[in-house]
Specification:
By secondary structure, the protein is of the alpha+beta class. It has a single domain, classed as Pseudouridine synthase, CATH 3.30.2350. The protein contains four helices and eleven strands; from the N terminus they run ββαββαβββββαββα. Strands 1, 2, 3, 4, 5, 6, 7, 8, 9, 10 and 11 form an eleven-stranded mixed beta sheet that branches. A hairpin with a 5-residue loop joins strand 6 and strand 7.
Length: 212
C-alpha cells in the first residue's frame, strides 16, 4: 500500500490525492479503496472518517474527507459552492467554452445527454491550455456535480477524454487523463478560506508535449 498523499489536514477535515485506478469507496474484505486507507490512517489517531464526495475509479486528484458527521453534512449541503477544477486531456483541437446539458442515466448505469424534461442540469466551463498532436490540455471548472459529467459532456461535443474507455474511443492510452486539481471553499468551522491546488501532472504534460 502506497503512503497517503495528504494535501491538507486540520482537526475537522482532510484532503488527499487519489491515484487513478483506485475506488474512492467500496465494500468487502478485499476493499483497497481510498476511504479504507484514510479510515485506517485516522483510526490510528482515534479520529473518525466521513467521506464528503467521490471521484471516478479512473480519475485522479483531490478528495475531501470530514472527521465529524456534522462537518460532512455541512460540506455536502453547500457542495455546489465549492470551487472544483480539473485538468483533462481531450482528443482534437477546440476553443475555450461552456457546456450546458441535461444528463440522464440508463438502466445499465451509463450517463447520457437527454433533455430538461427527464435529465438533471449539468454545467461546466473550460479553458484550453495547450494543443499538440491533435490533443488538447484543458482546465475545467464544474458548476454541478453529476455522475460522469465531464466525461459525458466532452464526449458529446466529439472531444472525448483521452483514455476514457467508457465514453471515449479506443486510443491505447495507459490511463484516463482526468485529474481533480483544485478545491476552494469556506471552512465549515472556522470560516476561513481553504484553497488547495496541484500542478499539472507530469504525464499530462508529457502527452501534450509540454516541457515545463
Amino acid at each position: 500500500m502506497k503512503k497517503l498523499k495528504i494535501e491538507y489536514e486540520d482537526k475537522t477535515i482532510l484532503i488527499v490525492d487519489k491515484p487513478y485506478k483506485k475506488l474512492t469507496i467500496a465494500s468487502g474484505n478485499s476493499d483497497n479503496s481510498l476511504y479504507r486507507e484514510v479510515r485506517e490512517y485516522l483510526n490510528k489517531k482515534n479520529e473518525k472518517c466521513f467521506i464528503v464526495h467521490r471521484l471516478d475509479y479512473e480519475t485522479s486528484g483531490l478528495v475531501l474527507f470530514a472527521k465529524t458527521e456534522k462537518v460532512k453534512l455541512s460540506m455536502q449541503e453547500k457542495w455546489d459552492e465549492v470551487e472544483r477544477l480539473y485538468y483533462a486531456v481531450v482528443h482534437g483541437k477546440l476553443q475555450d467554452g461552456v457546456l450546458e446539458n441535461y444528463l440522464s442515466e440508463t438502466k445499465t448505469l451509463l450517463t447520457y445527454v437527454s433533455n430538461k424534461n427527464v435529465g438533471k442540469y449539468a454545467k461546466l466551463d473550460y479553458k484550453v491550455l495547450s494543443t499538440k498532436n491533435d490533443k488538447s490540455l484543458v482546465s475545467i471548472k464544474l458548476y454541478t456535480g453529476r455522475k460522469n459529467q465531464i466525461r459525458v459532456q466532452f464526449a458529446n461535443i466529439n472531444h472525448p477524454i483521452v483514455g476514457d474507455k467508457k465514453y471515449g474511443i479506443k486510443d491505447g492510452a495507459s490511463r484516463m487523463y482526468l485529474h481533480a486539481f483544485k478545491l476552494k471553499f469556506i471552512h465549515p468551522i472556522d470560516k476561513k478560506e481553504i484553497c488547495i491546488e496541484e500542478d499539472i501532472p507530469v504525464d499530462f504534460k508529457k502527452i501534450c508535449g509540454i516541457n515545463n
